[in-house]
Design a protein that fits this description.
The chain is an alpha/beta fold and 429 residues long. Helices cover 29% and strands 26% of the residues. The chain has 13 helices and 24 strands. The structure holds ligand EPZ. The site of ligand EPZ has 24 residues, from helix 1, helix 5, helix 6 and helix 12.
Length: 429
């Protein structure tokens, strides 16, 4: 097993390139099934979630060929099964996109119950409701979700909650359904727009993505295309917070600054300088930053996937900050790890009250999930002393070349092999 070892207290300088968006890639890869041909997709991040998506596609009968790093040709002309086994589906949430894509392509799909990060209950009722609105039957049995339709027909879908996954799945299933499907109270995240753009290049007719009403007019045939995935909003935001928290002057390159506005606003409120350019943002900070309050909201609000990272920064900012989580029931598990590092935080329901301490102290900690792991990286950068992070495979689900990128801007981080299994999390903090 490997762990990350970070010696904190170094300021960060230089440039960091941002990879393609994980949460767009994990939807676009299954979406290639709708093409019945070859798609060439560029700017795909080299992360474990993507590798798993490719393995699943290959299991279904598709072929995946590396053209150059980050660029793949995916050929879905022949598919031999519409069933995704647990060994693939249970490792990640996004495996539910195979339901929408296979339903749209073959009129049926069966996927073992998706796994993914554990933030409490993660229902799939809105996915089910979308497929049913298009005339499909949905069956949840023996740990599998199965769906089938004689013929998909356009429908009217009104989501009870704003959901990224169900919005994408509704789009995937609706592109070939006869007539015009209307999706209301749709999610507006950048990856929703990216998926719509990809589907449209494949011949679909999707309008309104990025607003809360999306209209999908069904088409008979889809075809292959060339596409490049947008930059990762959350990876960019994570490096922005690293630069602000550690201090220094870092330019985050290859981004869409508009996608980062909610993060920019919070860092400025804390006293960091953030400058926007056409496709980069510069974050500079000196001395100790000050508190701010953050509430997570669907896009364009502050992303829940940046909540642990900003909390890790606020742990050593001056003053008392309140971080409220409004998307997930249980996304504060990482706080136990910050407490090990001397943070003063208590959780009341869906809010974390953070009394900023002058500095965190390095300690052995673990990544509880992907973004919780990113928070540990930030805490380790700002802490005095050495922080050792276990469970790093969870960080590598979503951050490409994280050690190389952090080292290039001056962080003292190493990946170290160790033999002992992680024994953290049982002792009282
Ligand atoms: C996506 O998850 C992201 N994952 C998550 O990022 C992200 O935290 C989340 O959107 C919110 O932005 C991927 O894109 C692969 P949702 P998703 O459906 O689609 C409720 C990361 O770190 N809900 O938008 O699964 C749900 O309980 C990951 O990269 C229902 O009630 O999330 C939650 O409260 C972690 N019924 C809210 O909607 C449903 O059928 C938003 O969930 C579906 C969701």
């Amino acid at each position: 097993m490997d762990k990350f070892v970070i010696n904190g207290g170094r300021r960060l300088f230089g440039e960091v390139p941002i990879s393609g968006a994980k949460n767009a890639a994990v939807a676009i890869i299954p979406a290639t099934l709708l093409a019945k041909g070859k798609c060439r997709v560029d700017n795909i991040p080299e992360i474990s979630d993507v590798r798993l998506m490719f393995k699943t596609l290959e299991y279904l009968g598709a072929s995946v060929r590396l053209i150059h790093p980050g660029c793949y040709e995916i050929d879905t002309s022949s598919i031999s099964t519409t069933e995704v086994p647990g060994m693939y589906a249970q490792k990640m949430r996004a495996s539910y996109y195979f339901l929408g894509a296979l339903l749209g392509r073959c009129g049926k799909a069966s996927v073992a119950m998706p796994g993914g990060c554990d933030f409490g209950v993660r229902p799939i009722d809105q996915h089910q409701k979308s497929f049913e609105a298009l005339g499909a039957r949905v069956n949840l049995e023996s740990g599998r979700i199965s769906t089938d339709a004689k013929e998909l027909k356009a429908g009217h879908i009104y989501f009870d909650v704003v959901t990224v996954g169900a919005t994408m799945n509704a789009m995937l299933a609706a592109v070939t359904a006869e007539g015009q499907t209307v999706i209301e109270n749709a999610a507006k995240e950048p990856h929703i727009v990216d998926l719509a753009n990809f589907l449209n290049l494949m011949g679909a007719d999707v309008r309104g993505a990025g607003t809360d009403t999306i209209k999908v007019r069904g088409v008979k045939e889809m075809h292959g295309c060339d596409y490049s995935i947008i930059p990762d909003q959350i990876e960019a935001g994570t490096y922005m917070v690293m630069a602000a928290a550690a201090g220094g002057d870092v330019t985050i390159k290859g981004v869409i600054p508009k996608h980062l506005e909610s993060i920019t606003a919070k860092l400025q409120e804390c006293g960091a300088t953030v400058e926007e350019f056409d496709d980069s943002v510069r974050v500079a900070a000196e001395g100790r930053l000050t508190k701010c309050n953050v509430k997570t909201m669907p896009h364009p609000g502050f992303p829940t996937d940046m909540q642990p990272q900003i909390a890790a920064m606020l742990a050593s900012c001056e003053g008392t900050s309140i971080v409220s989580e409004s998307i997930w029931d249980n996304r504060f598990r990482y706080i136990e790890q910050l407490l090990r590092m001397g943070a003063q935080i208590h959780v009341e329901g869906k809010a974390a009250i953070i009394e900023g301490v002058p500095y965190l102290k390095g300690a052995p900690v673990r990544a509880d999930d992907l973004r919780a792991g990113a928070a540990m990286l930030i805490a380790g950068l700002t802490a005095r002393g050495t922080t050792e992070i276990e469970n790093i495979h969870l960080i590598e689900r979503g951050y490409e070349h994280v050690v190389e990128k952090m080292t290039a801007i001056g962080a003292d981080i190493r990946r170290v092999r160790y033999d002992e299994p992680a024994a953290l999390g049982t002792s009282a903090v």
